[in-house]
């Protein structure tokens, strides 16, 4: 086959101008990239999809990303409050460390106990 014997049904991507929708999407991606924004994906089970549909329908929300940002900011407020209120173990007074240990683990006042006041306060 000679070089210029291409099938007519295949568009030549080097000379075909992009469609308006393609240009808009490209511009949006570039705008987000310039603003250092990133996309995060959420995987939902069928039952969680049903819950999401109910929440969106009941609240009249249409923008899933905006809902996620609102939930993130609300939880961030709780985490900030938690850092202030539970900076130290309620039993021994040692400062909190991720995956830390305490002799009083198991006591509800110890920050490392599964059912501690600290862990309960951190639930969303
Ligand atoms: Zn402790």
Architecture overview:
The chain has 124 residues and is mainly α. The protein has two domains: 45 residues, no CATH class; 48 residues, no CATH class. The protein contains four helices and no strands. It is elongated, with a radius of gyration of 26 Å. The N and C termini lie far apart (64 Å). The model has no long low-confidence stretch (mean pLDDT 88). Bound molecules: zinc ion (ZN).
* Multimerization status: single chain
Reported for the largest beta sheet, the result is:
none
Strand proportion, as a percent range, falls in: under 5%
- What integer value in Å does the Rg equal? 26 Å
Whole-number total of structural domains: 2
Helix content: 40-55%
SS-based structural class?
Answer: mainly alpha
Alpha carbon gap, first and last residue? 64 Å
Low-confidence stretches: none
Mean pLDDT: 88
SS element count, helices: 4
**Can you count the beta strands?**
0
């Amino acid at each position: 086959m000679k070089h210029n014997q291409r099938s007519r049904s295949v568009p030549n991507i080097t000379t075909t101008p992009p469609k308006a929708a393609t240009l808009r999407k490209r511009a949006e991606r570039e705008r987000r990239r310039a603003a250092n924004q990133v996309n995060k994906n959420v995987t939902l089970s069928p039952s969680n999809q049903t819950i999401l549909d109910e929440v969106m329908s009941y609240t009249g929300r249409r923008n899933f990303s905006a809902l996620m940002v609102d939930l993130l900011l609300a939880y961030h407020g709780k985490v900030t409050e938690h850092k202030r209120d539970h900076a130290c173990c309620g039993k021994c007074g040692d400062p909190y460390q991720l995956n830390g240990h305490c002799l009083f683990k198991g006591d509800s006042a110890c920050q490392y106990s599964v059912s501690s006041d600290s862990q309960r306060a951190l639930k969303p």
